[in-house]
Amino acid sequence: MLRSDNVAYKVKPVCGYEDIMRDYELLIRNTTEIRSVVMLNCGGDIDLTDKFPVINPDSDDPDDHNPYLYFYINDSRRPYNHMNLLPSSKQVIVFGDEGDDPETILEMTQRMAELGDITPEDLDDSESESDSDSDSNASDNDDNQDNDNEEQPNDNDADDDQESLDEAEFGEEKTTKSEHTDGNKSSVEEEEVIEAKSENDSSDPPVRTKR
Fold first, then answer.
1. Is pLDDT larger for residue 179 or for residue 72?
2. Where is average pLDDT lowest: 52-61, 97-106, 132-141, 184-193?
3. To the nearest 10°, the Cα dihedral for 121, 127, 130, 131?
4. CA-CA distance, 96 to 131, in Å (whole number)?
5. By the 8 A CB rule, do 38 and 28 touch?
6. Cα 125-127-129 angle, rounded to 5 deg
7. How far apart are CA 17 and CA 55, in angstroms?
């Protein structure tokens, strides 16, 4: 098809990414005549804008950037590098599966790109803040628990007070019964003494008197 349309093209078989980088340096980097690079069954699992400054508008050397060059990737291997789908990689066109949801992939890729800006120092600071928050929450929970314990009545103390009150009442009742018993016993003994005296003083039948 390209030949029938008189479109100049060149096919370069490669065995790996070393061959791709070599051909990039020899054929692509230093020319502005090439407008399209089609990568068949390769290039899908690397970030092309990172490997090829010629299609990176944020390249350290602006002269390396060629705004007219586009890379077309048709790679059946998975997973492919989602960085090639970011809006900043507009010079990279990826032909993916029809079942892939472009919006979902783009959202996930943007989140991954945001995570890529996080440094180890940021992670350490985040962990320190998380530990501080955990310690603060634990301290607040302990304080709340102590306050709850102070506000709630002590059931054990109430039971002890009730038992002491019952014992006191039972002791008073027992003392009263004992006094009544002793009084009755004294009356009986007194009657027996009077009866004995009556027998000694007179031959008449004893007369029992009560006081």
1. 72
2. 184-193
3. -120
4. 43
5. no
6. 70
7. 17
> b/e string for 32-57 if b means 16 or more Cβ within 10 A?
eebeebebeebbbebebbeebbbbbe
Residue 189 has pLDDT above 60, yes or no: no
Instruction: Let me know: does 88 contact 57? Beta carbons within 8 Å.
Output: yes
The residue type at 66: N
Report the alpha-carbon distance of residue 78 to residue 89 in Å, rounded.
Answer: 19
Evaluate the CA torsion angle 33, 86, 12, 64 in order and state its sign: positive
Residue 66 gets which letter from DSSP? Answer: -
pLDDT of residue 38: 93
Taking the CB of residue 80, how many other CB atoms lie within 10 A of it?
Answer: 21
109 pLDDT more than 90: no
**pTM of the shown model:** 0.47
pLDDT at residue 211 in the model: 47
Please report, as a single letter, which amino acid is at residue 82: H
Confidence at residue 37, expressed as pLDDT on a 0 to 100 scale: 92
